[in-house]
Amino acid sequence: MLIVAPWSGFWDRNFFVDRLPALAQMLSSPFARGAVSGIGIVTTLAGLAEFGAAFGGRRPNAEPPGEPTFHSDR
User: What average pLDDT does this structure show over 26-48?
Assistant: First the structure.
């Protein structure tokens, strides 16, 4: 949502822009829109990384939980 919203008509019909006209000029700047889109991209990439770590990194346990097993390889 944050990636696309600053570049859509939704961004221009903002409640805060109507209340504070000085804010309108700042929020309509391409730099502000790009910053918000950048935050959206970073958030999306972080979410995908978390998703991949949660589902991609699972491995079956070699030993069942319980008492620890000691190996003497010395």
Answer: 92
Residue 46 pLDDT level (bands cut at 50, 70, 90): very high
Asked whether the CA dihedral 25, 26, 30, 34 is positive or negative, the reply is negative
- CA 18 vs. chain centroid, Å, equals 28
In the block, which residue shows the tokens 């829109």? 33
Residue 26 near residue 32 (C-beta atoms within 8 A): yes
40, 2 in Cβ contact below 8 A? yes
Task: Tell me if residue 15 falls in helix, strand or coil.
Answer: helix
Better-predicted residue by pLDDT, 49 or 59: 49
